[in-house]
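Hi Y.,

Following your request, here is the sequence exactly as I used it, all 287 residues.
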Amino acid sequence: MKFKKCCIWVCISILCVFICICALIAIYDLYNKLSGIQLSNLSSTGKLDIENYLLNIKIYHVYIISAFATFSTGIIAIIIAFVSPKIEKKNNSCTFQINMTDVFPYYNATKIKFYDFDNIGKFVETSSDTETFIYRIGVIPKGNKSKNTIVAVKHLRKQGEKEDVLGFLPMRLCWSYKDNVINQNERVIEKIIHQDVEQYCDFCFVKKYINDPDLCFLSLCGEYSGRTGQSICNCIFDSGFYEVEIIIAADNCKKTQKYLITFTFNCAPHFIDGHPSMFKLIEVKEI
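Below is the corresponding structure, written out as C-alpha cells. Let me know if you'd prefer a different format.
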C-alpha cells in the first residue's frame, strides 16, 4: 500500500514538473513574439505605431493568461504533491496513554500450565499447573487508531544503577490472550488498536519455583527467539528496587514514546490481606 501511494505521488510530481516546464517554454515563446510584434510595428520613420501595437497585444491577452495559469497550476500542484503526504500522515497519527495498577485487569492471579515450542514448532507442556501472578500494561491510542503497535523493553536495571541486570536482552513484550499463537510477530505486533480502546500487554509474571515453593522469581513476558524457538526469559531472582524502561511504537505514531516503570520485587512469597506483595508497583512515568 505504501509503495502504491509513493508511485502515485512520484507520477503526480513528474507531471507537475512537466506542466511547469511547458509553461516556462510558453512564456519564453510569448516574450519572443512580443518582441517581434514591436519590431513589425515600427513605421517607416522608425517610430512605433502605438495603435497597431496595442491591437496586436490584445490578441495575445488570452495567451498570456493561459501561460500564467498553466505555470501557476504547476507550482500549486507541486506544492500539493509534497505537502499532502505530510498532512495525511499528521491526520492519521496517534499518541499513546498507558495504564498500570495492581488491581484487575492489570493484575491477575491464576494457575496456568507453561508451554514452549518443540523441535517441530508445536507447543508442548513444560510444567504442570503452577500458581502464577500476571501483571499487565494497558495501552490506549489517542487521536486515531494505531497500526502495527509494539511494546518493547529497552532497559532493566536496579534502581540507581546505570547498567542493566546481568543477562538482560532487550525484547518486545507479548500482547495478552495470544499465548497459543505460534507466529511470534502475531504475539508481539498488534495490527490494529482502535482509538480510545484499551488493549492489554503482558508485562511480567511472578511464579514460585517448582522445586522450592518458598522462593519465587519474576520474568518479563517477552517474545520467542526466532533462532532457537525458545522463550527469551529476562528474569529477576534477587529482591530489590528495579526500573524498566519501555518504548511504545506504531507505524502511524507521532513519535516513539518512552516510559519508566519502577517497582519492588521480593523473592520470598508473602501476602497482605490475601493479596500477593512480591511485586509492588511504585511509579509509571513518561520520559
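The first strand starts at residue 95 and ends at 99.

Thanks again,
Q.
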